[in-house]
Structures are given as structure tokens and as C-alpha cells.
């Protein structure tokens, strides 16, 4: 079917606990989300058939929309009159998603590229092995046997480069003789994406003990990364091996019109599509109960090509992993966001309770404030991890001139440049289901500390996974629904970078609001201001004081078009690089309360 | 009676007003401004008839007077060198045009001694205490595992990256510790850094090639590479031929190293040590084969060539500090931090001095004359 002929799309996302279904219909010339439904996932006993949950979710959509979508246990397709849908697609993270192990020669080079390929494909990377990771061979063998990943990605050596190191890794794999997590009768899928000259040796070593696939080198030369073939192979093997072993997935695969994608891979896919189509830099975050995923698309400063990165902070989440947030962030960092005096033991107990009762939600305003303080730190730490992973390629030659004498930049610098960031998208319970959107905006600003002018949005019902897989079939429909129904535009954050003395003038903001009013104000350092205006273009002139930057350079005024939203335009004059919170508890509480009131965080 | 008294007083006053008859006099005293001793100041009164004054000295060991020098005038004090703790006498003889002695005088014995405390060096003493104190403080701090921030140097961060590149490409690492002998501090620094690079190549299982131009450097480099491979638990990977001697001749050595580069095409080239005119020849060849090159030298004249032809260059102090950065030895890290603080303080002091002197205030400069 041609994309233009598609009238309706049904998409499901099979999560570990819930299966979510959305129905997208063509209304006039545009595609819009019309209904959503959900049902418990049925991959575990007693059902052990994922399609049961899918059908239940679709049934809910059917009832809510008042349209027939199912005929018995099958989805009617293509659409006939008012019945059925033209295409059905699905993503899945049930059963722990795709769990991979990657290996390379040098940890910071081919192993890092392999990790990027696996994470970009939506996998959870359980371990990264390399020749220089400091582990003895027997330790590596024991680790491989212990982990039992779904798949292994082996890389290393540029084309024509080292053979001995790669073969050594293959020998370790052979010695470990790893078994897959699902389906004991199957051999573990291994993808080799390393030095092409070593492929025959690798085949000799692994062909009889694993299900080996050889794809083009993901680092053919050190100056270039070629992750596409490895990522595609991961998706194929995910379908063929991992999904085929999970209960009911064979039937589900037969029902869908496009390959089932791992949920995080699909989210990454839609973020890449949006960044490419709108030519913007995007950061997306999905904070869950056990893990936090961060996605980003930034331009490489050398090639100016957009580079996609995804990281999974496996131990940072808001329920199962909440105690890890406390351990990693330290108590004082969480306490700095709590806008009232609280006993340390009390805070520890509350965090512990949330971990052992992960499904509870805050029952009082005080509990909500504590939960949001923890969320700020979880998001901040995940983003720190992301920044350290989203880096340029290492080990490449640099060209110098005499002007580099005292300023020699190194390779492997982070690609995340907050001043270049155009759109920050939040997702996950604590952000998407915050009682007020103002709280989501404030949490994202505090955690990510955007610089310059940045648009803020949240994914209302976490439909990015479905839209990601839809983008592979019908990109136009995916982007239309993403912009109109998926994203809740919260507004724009204006955050000048720099610091002056407290109370001094920091930035002057002149706005021509859509209702015809004008907003002209000089904001003092340390203030936060909210300008409530809907999602519509606003002509803005932003004039920072000397030495302060809003994107045009230090002290340079910026004239641009910005957008309001459900929250509005937030002028954050608290300074950046560094962002400093008062050390004194009384003063800190006073400041936090003032900022909170300024952006109407808890005001109903 | 009264008249007589008045006359006597007048005569007395006139006598006072008239110059005394100036006979030849000699006064010798130790120079109190000389903290080391060994100097005496000789002052003498002239006589009118004298054409020249001959000065002699005699210490307790001497039997006869020893002629020291002849002077035509004695209107200025004369400073003379003597032995400390040895009594010495001076004799001055005034002679006329006919070389006839008119008059002579002998001084009392004088003894000079070194002072216990040199007050002229108080500022230096205080500075020394401060400098040592600051360095010791930071060494102590580093030893207590307190984090010491040192400015990140791209060239040093790239060491591991360069070895990693060689590993991925299956090529060797070429290390040249300069062309001079071990009497040059840059060569010593180059050999120490070689130890760190050898540890990395042992860890990464990459091959290492170290051509040298001095036999002593070869021995030292071999020893340090061997030790590095042992410390990384990979003595099996060490081969003494990794470090090999070519020639002492500057350009013959450069030609030999260029030959290695063109034949073996190493993926990483380290040029760490003392270099002269061959620096650009080596760096350009390394660049042409596509290797990551990290140079380090204290020779200011070679730095521009290295900066333009190499990927990273360690300049002067960075090069000498490389060992501390790479080894993370608290003693060296603390000492570098301390030295940097002191250097900063000296720069500020010079700046303040320049400002005061430019404004015409000399008290600041005077402090340093103490």
C-alpha cells in the first residue's frame, strides 16, 4: 500500500507491565491520534502469550472509538469501510527488552563504537569487553557465561588493522561457549562487525558454537563510524532470535506490517526523524522506575553531520532504582532541591519506602516535592552519563596550525552543547504525569540546565515508541502525530549563560506576545520569571549584559522567534556555568520557594 | 687677669680652628657589610710631600711584608681581600719622587670572620621557606589522597589514544627520545616518559620501536622499557631489540628514523626529548604517513615546527611535568602544583613591582634588596 493511501494506523507498544495501543486516523490531509487504550502485558505466566494483552488493548481502542478493529483474534487489515486498519505495527520491551554484550579491541575506540551501535538499536548493554579493560582472560570468560545475553556484538580493528586482538576476543567467546537467555536449543547470535581481514579467522573460531553473522566493519577506519549495518543486523536478529523465543511473539510478528522494534530503538528513531526533518538539536529523556534513557541528536562540530546517541542509565530510576539515585547523587544533592527543612533520616526512610513499594504515588504535597527533588538528581546524573558517552571519535589525526600552540583541542570531546540545544523532550511518569505541567518544566530546567533558548516539551502518553516504528513505514504520519498529539509543548526557557553579582541586571527581554501585548523587562540575576503565553510564535529580543551569553556571543543581543506553551516562556536568570544554589539551608529554602512561586510550580 | 683669660680662650679657639698637622695614619677594620667576611676596609690620612703610598700586608704565617699595591692618593677607603680567622697587619709607606721613604705606619692586627646570619638575604630566606612550605604542603595534600586539580593537557590525554590507535590499526608505536645524550635534562625526561608509554604498549599488546642516537640512552631506555613490561606483568612481550642504536650523527639518525617511518608506517609517533634541525624532517615524515604524532621538547626554537606538523605538542614545562601527569605519583603531582603556585606568585610580584616602579615608588623594589 502506498503511504498516501493509508487511512488508519494501529500501533502497540508491549511494555514489561502494560501494553499500550494507539489508533491514528487520517483526518482531511493530516494524521491525528484519535484513541488510545491499554491492557496488562501477558507475556508471563499464566497467559504466556503476548498477543492476548495486545488484543485486549486493541479491544479497548475499538470500544472507545466505536469502530470494529478485530475479527476474533485477528486485526482486520486493510481497512474496509469503517472496519479495521490499514497497517498495524508494534514495538516491544517485554521480558527485559534486548540485552546485549559488546566487545572490541580498544575500550575507547572500537568497543565504544560497538556500544553506540547496540544502544542505538535499542539494546541494554550488559557489559563492554576490550583488550585493555584490565580483566584477565578467565574473568572475561566467567563474565560471558554469567551474563547470558540475548546477543553479542564483536568488533575491533580497522579494515586491514589488527587481527590478533580480534581473534583473541573470539577465542575467549569460544571458550566461554555462551548460551542465549531465551530458547535453550538455539545458539547465541553473534554479530561480527570488525576488521574484514579477520572475518575468516572469526568464522573458524565461532561458526560452530554460535549463530555468527558477519556485517561490514563498524569502524572501517578510525576517522569514520559505520553503525548502520550492525544496527540493522541487531534488529533482524532481535526479530529472528529474541522475539521468536518469547511467548506469543511469533504470532505477533505475523500480525504486524513492519518488523517489531525494541522500544528504546523506536524512540531513538523518532527523535532522529524529528531532528533531521526540522534541522534541530534534540535531547529526549525517558525516566522510568528502574532505568533512565537519554537520547540526543547534536551536530558533530567537525563534519556538521547530526550524530545520534542513546544511553541507558540502568541504575537510575524513580522506584526500583530510587535508592541507587540516593547512593549516586548523595543525600546533600537531593536535599538541595527540597524546598523545606527535612530530617535526613526521614528522607532516607521515604526513599527506602518508595523502593520497596514501587507502585505507590505521592499522597501529599510534601511527598510530591521530595519525589520531584529525587527526579531532578536522577535526570541530572543520567544526563552527565550521557554527556560523557556522546562524544566525538577518538584516535583520529588532528590538523594543526601555529595558532593551536596554546590551545590544542583533544579528540573525544562531548557533542552535547547545551547552547545549541533546540528542543528538550521529557517522558516517563514523573514528567508526563506531574500534577502540573509547570512542575515538569521546572524539573527539566533544574536537571538539564538548558542554556540560551530551548523549547521544552513532554510526551503526554509515551507514544514515542509507536511513532518511532511508524516512522519506518510512514514518516509523514509519524511526524504529524508527534508534533500535534504526542508532544505537549510546555514553552521556552531563556537561560543566559554567565554570572554577575546578585541583584544586578542580567538580561533584558522584549517580547511581542500573540495577544498583542508587549513584555519588556530587565531581569535581575537570581530571578526566575514566567510569561504565560500559549503555543504560538512570539517575536523576542533578548539583550544580555556584558559578558553574558544567550546564544549570540557574550554581551550580544539575540532577535528570534520563540514559542510559548502550556506553561509559557520561562526566563531563568539564575546563571549558568556554574549554576549555584545557596549553601545556607534557610537561604536555599527561601530561594527555592521564590523560584517555585515565580513559575507557579505548585499553584493551582 | 680677665684680659689674659680672654686671650687664652681665643688662642685655644684658634688652635681648634686650624687644621691639625696631618701625619700618615692608617686604620684597618673588617668590612661589616660583608657577611662572608674576607674583606677589610683600609682608611688612611695623606701627607703633602708623598708622591706614592705602598701598601704591604703580613699575616701571622708570613715572615716578611708582602707588597699589595701602590696608590697615589688615600682619599678614599680601600677594600682588600684577606683570609678569614687569620690576624693580618697592614703597613703603608709614603715615598717621595726620589723613591725615598718619607714616613710609614703599621696597623693593628685585624681578623675577619663570616657572619652567622646574612641579613642581606632575608628576603631570599623567607622566599625559600615559603616556596618549600608550599611545595611540601601540596605533596602532603596529594599523599593524603586529596584531589589535586591539574590543568588538562590535550597532548598528555592523547598518549593512551595514540597507543590505542596503533593497536586498532595493528601497527607499531615509534618513540624517539631526542638526539642528545643523558647529560641533557630533556633526554632524561624523554626516557622517563618512554617508561609510561612502554607500560601502555604492554597493556595494549602493541609493538614498540625505540631508535636512539646515543649508546648511553640506549642502555637507559632498554632498562626502563624492560621494567615497564615487567611491572605490567608482560615480560614475555619485551624484546631488547625494541630499543636500538643507529648513529650519533644528527642527520644520519634523522634519515634512519625517516626510513623506519616510511617502511613500517607506525600509527603513533612520539618525539620526546631534545631536538635540533631534524625536528621538522621527522615531524613532516610522520605527518605524511598519517600517524598520530605527539611531540615534547624544551627547545623553544623547535616548538613552532612541532606544533604545525604534529597532532599534539608538549611545550617546555608541560613536557617536564608529563611524567607526573602520566604516573599520577602524588609526590610529583604535589610538587608540580606547588611550583605552579609559586610561579604564579612570582608573576604577580613582578607585575606589582613594575606598576610601583612605573609610578615612581621604589619601596617595593627596596624590600627585595634586603
Explain this structure to me?
The complex is a heterodimer of chains A (604) and B (370). Helices cover 33% and strands 25% of the residues of chain A. Chain A is α/β, with parallel strands linked by helices and 604 residues long. Chain A folds into three domains: 3-94, ATPase, nucleotide binding domain (Nucleotidyltransferase, domain 5), CATH 3.30.420; 97-255, 3-Layer(aba) Sandwich (Rossmann fold); 266-316 and 351-392 and 413-598, no CATH class. In chain A, helix 9 (322-329) crosses helix 12 (365-389). The longest helix of chain A has 25 residues, at 365-389. Chain A is globular. The relative contact order of chain A is 0.09. Chain B has three domains: 2-106, Immunoglobulin-like (Sandwich); 119-140 and 332-367, no CATH class; 148-328, 3-Layer(aba) Sandwich (Rossmann fold). Helix content of chain B is 46%, strand content 19%. Chain B is built from eleven helices and 13 strands. Chain B is elongated. The mean pLDDT of chain B is 90. Chains A and B meet through loops of A and helix 3, helix 8 and strand 13 of B.
Q: Record the strand order, biggest sheet of chain B.
A: 10-9-8-11-12-13
Instruction: Indicate the percent of residues in helices of chain A.
Output: 25-40%
* Sheet with most strands of chain B: 6 strands, parallel
Mean pLDDT over all positions of chain B: 90
- Find the biggest chain interface: A-B, 34 and 30 residues
Low-confidence segments of chain B, ≥5 residues, pLDDT <50?
A: none
Strand runs of chain A, count = 24
Q: What is the class of the largest domain in chain B in the CATH system?
A: Alpha Beta
Shape of chain A: globular
Helix % of chain B is 40-55%
The DSSP helix count of chain A reads 17
Amino acid at each position: 500500500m502506498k503511504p498516501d493511501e493509508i487511512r488508519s494506523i494501529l500501533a502497540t507498544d508491549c511494555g514489561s507491565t502494560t501494553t499500550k495501543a494507539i489508533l491514528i486516523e487520517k483526518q482531511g490531509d493530516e494524521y491525528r491520534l484519535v484513541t488510545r487504550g491499554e491492557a496488562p502485558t501477558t507475556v508471563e505466566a499464566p497467559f504466556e502469550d503476548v498477543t492476548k494483552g495486545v488484543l485486549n488493548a486493541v479491544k479497548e481502542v475499538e470500544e472507545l472509538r466505536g469502530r470494529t478493529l478485530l475479527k476474533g483474534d485477528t486485526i482486520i487489515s486493510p481497512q474496509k469501510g469503517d472496519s479495521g486498519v490499514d497497517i498495524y505495527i508494534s514495538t516491544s520491551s517485554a521480558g527485559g527488552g534486548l540485552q546485549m554484550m559488546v566487545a572490541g579491541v580498544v575500550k575507547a575506540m572500537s568497543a565504544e563504537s560497538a556500544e553506540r551501535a547496540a544502544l542505538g538499536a535499542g539494546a541494554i548493554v550488559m557489559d563492554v569487553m576490550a583488550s585493555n579493560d584490565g580483566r584477565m582472560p578467565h574473568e572475561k570468560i566467567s563474565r560471558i557465561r554469567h551474563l547470558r545475553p540475548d546477543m553479542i556484538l564483536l568488533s575491533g580493528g580497522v579494515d586491514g588493522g589488527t587481527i590478533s586482538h580480534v581473534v583473541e576476543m573470539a577465542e575467549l567467546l569460544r571458550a566461554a561457549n555462551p548460551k542465549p537467555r531465551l530458547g535453550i536449543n538455539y545458539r547465541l547470535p553473534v554479530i561480527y562487525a570488525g576488521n574484514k581481514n579477520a572475518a575468516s579467522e572469526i568464522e573458524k573460531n565461532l561458526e560452530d558454537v554460535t549463530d555468527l553473522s558477519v556485517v561490514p566493519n563498524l569502524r572501517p577506519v578510525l576517522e569514520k563510524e559505520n553503525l548502520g549495518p550492525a544496527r540493522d543486523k541487531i534488529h533482524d536478529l532481535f526479530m529472528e532470535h529474541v522475539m521468536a523465543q518469547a511467548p506469543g511473539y511469533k504470532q505477533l510478528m505475523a500480525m504486524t506490517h513492519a518488523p517489531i522494534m525494541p522500544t528504546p530503538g523506536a524512540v531513538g528513531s523518532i527523535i532522529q526523524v524529528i531532528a533531521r526533518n526540522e534541522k534541530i538539536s534534540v535531547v529526549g529523556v525517558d525516566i522510568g522506575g528502574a532505568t533512565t534513557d537519554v537520547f540526543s541528536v547534536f551536530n558533530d562540530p567537525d563534519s556538521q553531520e547530526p550524530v545520534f546517541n542513546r544511553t541507558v542509565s540502568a541504575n537510575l530510576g524513580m522506584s526500583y532504582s530510587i535508592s541507587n539515585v540516593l547512593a549516586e547523587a548523595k543525600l546533600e544533592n537531593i536535599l538541595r532541591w527540597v524546598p523545606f527543612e527535612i530530617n535526613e533520616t526521614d528522607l532516607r526512610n521515604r526513599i527506602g519506602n518508595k523502593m520497596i513499594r514501587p507502585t505507590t504515588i505521592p499522597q501529599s504535597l510534601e511527598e510530591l516535592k521530595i519525589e520531584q527533588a529525587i527526579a531532578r538528581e536522577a535526570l541530572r546524573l543520567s544526563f552527565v552519563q550521557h554527556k560523557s558517552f556522546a562524544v566525538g571519535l577518538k584516535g583520529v589525526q588532528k590538523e594543526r596550525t601555529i595558532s593551536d600552540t596554546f590551545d590544542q583541542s583533544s579528540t573525544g570531546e562531548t557533542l552535547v552543547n547545551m547552547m545549541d540545544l533546540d528542543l528538550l523532550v521529557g517522558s516517563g511518569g514523573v514528567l508526563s504525569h506531574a500534577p502540573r505541567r509547570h512542575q515538569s518544566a521546572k524539573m527539566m530546567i533544574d536537571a538539564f540546565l538548558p542554556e540560551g533558548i530551548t523549547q521544552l516539551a513532554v510526551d503526554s502518553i509515551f507514544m514515542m515508541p509507536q511513532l518511532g516504528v511508524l516512522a519506518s513505514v510512514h514518516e509523514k504520519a509519524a511526524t504529524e502525530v508527534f508534533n500535534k498529539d504526542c508532544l505537549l509543548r510546555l514553552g521556552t526557557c531563556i537561560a543566559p549563560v554567565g554570572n554577575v553579582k546578585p541583584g544586578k541586571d542580567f538580561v533584558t527581554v522584549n517580547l511581542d506576545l500573540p495577544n498583542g501585548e508587549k513584555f519588556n523587562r530587565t531581569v535581575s540575576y537570581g530571578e526566575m520569571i514566567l510569561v504565560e503565553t500559549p503555543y504560538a510564535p512570539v517575536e523576542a529580543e533578548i539583550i544580555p549584559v556584558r559578558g553574558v551569553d544567550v546564544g549570540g556571543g557574550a554581551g550580544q543581543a539575540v532577535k528570534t522567534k520563540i514559542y510559548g506553551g502550556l506553561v509559557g516562556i520561562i526566563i531563568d536568570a539564575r546563571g549558568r556555568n556554574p549554576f549555584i544554589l545557596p549553601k545556607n539551608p534557610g537561604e536555599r529554602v527561601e530561594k527555592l520557594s521564590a523560584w517555585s512561586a515565580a513559575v507557579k510550580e505548585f499553584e493551582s | 687677669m680677665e684680659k689674659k683669660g680672654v686671650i687664652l680662650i681665643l688662642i685655644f679657639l684658634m688652635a681648634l680652628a686650624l687644621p691639625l698637622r696631618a701625619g700618615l695614619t692608617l686604620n684597618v677594620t673588617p668590612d661589616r657589610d660583608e657577611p662572608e667576611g674576607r674583606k677589610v676596609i683600609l682608611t688612611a690620612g695623606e701627607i703633602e710631600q708623598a708622591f706614592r703610598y705602598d701598601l704591604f700586608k703580613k699575616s701571622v704565617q708570613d715572615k716578611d711584608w708582602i707588597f699589595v699595591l701602590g696608590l697615589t692618593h688615600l682619599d678614599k677607603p680601600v677594600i682588600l681581600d684577606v683570609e678569614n680567622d687569620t690576624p693580618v697587619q697592614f703597613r703603608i709607606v709614603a715615598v717621595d719622587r726620589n723613591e725615598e721613604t718619607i714616613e710609614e705606619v703599621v696597623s693593628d692586627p685585624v681578623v675577619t670572620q663570616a657572619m652567622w646570619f646574612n641579613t642581606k638575604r632575608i628576603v631570599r630566606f623567607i622566599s625559600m621557606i615559603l616556596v618549600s612550605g608550599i611545595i611540601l604542603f601540596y605533596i602532603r595534600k596529594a599523599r593524603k589522597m586529596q584531589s589535586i586539580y591539574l590543568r588538562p593537557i590535550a597532548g598528555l590525554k592523547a598518549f593512551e589514544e595514540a597507543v590505542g590507535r596503533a593497536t586498532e590499526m595493528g601497527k607499531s608505536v615509534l618513540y624517539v627520545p631526542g638526539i642528545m645524550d643523558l647529560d641533557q635534562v630533556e633526554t632524561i625526561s624523554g626516557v622517563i616518559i618512554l617508561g609510561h608509554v612502554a607500560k601502555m604498549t604492554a597493556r595494549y599488546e602493541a609493538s614498540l620501536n625505540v631508535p636512539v642516537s646515543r649508546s648511553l640512552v640506549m642502555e637507559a631506555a632498554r632498562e626502563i622499557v624492560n621494567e615497564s613490561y615487567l611491572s605490567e606483568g608482560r615480560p614475555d612481550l619485551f624484546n631488547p631489540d625494541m630499543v636500538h642504536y643507529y648513529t650519533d650523527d644528527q642527520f644520519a639518525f634523522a634519515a634512519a628514523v625517516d626510513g623506519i617511518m616510511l617502511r613500517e608506517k607506525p600509527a603513533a609517533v612520539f618525539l620526546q626529548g631534545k631536538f635540533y634541525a631534524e625536528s621538522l624532517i621527522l615531524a613532516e615524515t610522520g605527518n605524511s604517513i598519517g600517524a598520530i604524532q605527539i611531540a615534547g621538547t624544551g627547545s623553544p626554537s623547535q616548538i613552532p615546527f612541532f606544533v604545525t606538523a604534529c597532532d599534539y605538542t608538549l611545550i617546555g614545562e608541560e613536557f617536564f611535568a608529563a611524567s607526573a601527569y602520566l604516573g599520577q605519583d602524588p609526590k610529583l603531582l604535589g610538587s608540580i602544583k606547588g611550583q605552579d603556585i609559586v610561579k604564579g606568585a612570582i608573576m604577580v610580584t613582578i607585575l606589582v613591582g613594575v606598576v610601583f616602579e612605573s609610578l615612581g615608588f621604589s619601596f617595593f623594589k627596596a624590600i627585595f634588596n634586603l
